[in-house]
């Protein structure tokens, strides 16, 4: 090979190398922890709180999120199949699930940011607003001696179904007197129109209902629940979440597998930070860390006192 061809080849290699680096830097510069575009796969049962967090985040930073609301199984499958890199789920990853990422040499960044719960609801015409968790579990196992006419779930692959099946020690739902729809709103609507049915929904859909659901919410009762081997009935309220007396609690997590300092990291830090935790507090769920309240004292009076 002539000296000219050697020089030409060297020039081309250097040119290609620097252009690749330039393209790589240009791509990475499109997204940082506070700017760019990203998709979040969300467990449908906790969509309202994630929508609130995203709305405020986008109002403060040059960022745009696309929310993909799915059942828990669909969200996790998207994560394991590399179709999703940021997800919000209503439980932590199991050891077996973490092993999948360990084999890929990926360490997911997992951030807990709130505590939600699962609620039982019934038709407004039902005056009994108390229910024992054991009664529900027995019904799931086939016992039809209770006042329950049917159980209604949002989706056969949802986190609420998985939660209740784990409690009952079941691998699937019964074929008789157990119904599934696609969304929590469909469950609420069905229960509001059918007496004797017990709906199983995420508390987040009750604490932050869509405006179009107000008439439906007005026609249902949220039941107070007696835990297994426990005394007393407790409503799914923020206070009972904080005291740990409500028996159907679950934590919410942001799982970030982006592998770089992108919007996944920024959003998780925001949701777990002061502003994000105040959003959780206002939503009716329990923040992971209760935001502090600062009072400015002026001349012996706080600025909250009336003048």
From TrEMBL:
Keyword Transcription regulation: no
Keywords: Signal
The PBP domain, residue ranges: 36-273
Protein name: Substrate-binding domain-containing protein
Keyword Amino-acid biosynthesis tagged: no
Listed PANTHER family: PERIPLASMIC PHOSPHATE BINDING COMPONENT OF PHOSPHATE ABC TRANSPORTER (PTHR30570), PHOSPHATE-BINDING PROTEIN PSTS (PTHR30570:SF1)
